[in-house]
Design brief:
about 100% helix; mainly alpha
Length: about 110
């Protein structure tokens, strides 16, 4: 009878421990699911961050290229501005020469 009582006590303890273990396993499984979901969200965010960083780097490269192109165009414009007075003077001189030739042509054509 003592063995039977001990056996019954052990069985009760086993059931309690088994029940407690199942509860712990359920908690662990729930937490594992939450960790898996969090990991998936982290992976997605990391992927998005990497994509945005790449876009930012491409934008930086484009900005640098545009800035360099702008500097080159400004330098060309400055050179053109420097030569503008010379070109205007040459154009004025050529216009005067053309006007003189036209006057001479009219004089010659009136003689004929």
């Amino acid at each position: 009878a003592v063995v039977s009582t001990q056996s019954t006590g052990i069985n009760l303890q086993r059931e309690e421990i088994s029940s407690e273990l199942m509860g712990i396993k359920k908690i662990v499984n729930d937490w594992q699911s939450k960790v898996d979901i969090s990991q998936s969200e982290l992976d997605l965010l990391t992927s998005e961050q990497t994509k945005k960083e790449k876009q930012l780097e491409e934008a930086r490269v484009n900005l640098e290229r545009v800035a360099n192109s702008y500097k080159e165009e400004v330098a060309k414009a400055k050179e053109l501005m420097k030569s503008l007075p010379k070109n205007e003077e040459a154009a004025h001189t050529q216009q005067n020469q053309l006007d003189e030739l036209i006057r001479e042509e009219k004089k010659l054509s009136t003689r004929l």
